[in-house]
Amino acid sequence: MPLLSWNYVCFVVAVAMLYFRLQRTGQNALLLAASLAFSATWDYRGALLLAASSIIDFAISRRLDWELPENVRRRALWLSVILNIGTLATVKYARFWI
């Protein structure tokens, strides 16, 4: 779905209308689903990559609990940053999609 199309405008308006009608957890789920749907319109592999990245980041974020020692939280944060930058670099520069 091209960004400069009526389909995209309708998609964004529909998501925005739903977003403001939902509670916070519903808003998060809607944005995740909308992101996956939008990515899937370009290439299903992008949606799969986004889903995998979201699941990994969610799992890592569970290690950022305030009750854990600071060094554990810091390592979890850096692991997330490195994995996300590594994913971005792989997709952008390693001709991942070919």
Essential attributes:
98 residues; mainly alpha; 4 helices; 77% helix; single chain
Q: How many individual helices?
A: 4
What is the β-strand count?
0
Quote the distance from N terminus to C terminus: 20 Å
Order of helices and strands: HHHH
- How is the main sheet built? none
Instruction: Please state the average pLDDT score.
Output: 88
Which band does the percent of strand residues land in? under 5%
Shape: flat
Binned, the helix content reads: over 70%
SS content category: mainly alpha
- The whole-angstrom Rg is 17 Å
**Residue ranges: pLDDT <50 for 5 or more in a row?**
none
Summarize the structure in short.
77% of the residues lie in helices and 0% in strands.
Characterise the protein shown here.
This protein has helices spanning 6-19, 24-42, 44-61, 70-93. The chain has four helices and no strands. The longest helix is centred in the C-terminal third of the chain and has 24 residues, at 70-93. With 98 residues, it is mainly alpha-helical. The mean pLDDT is 88.
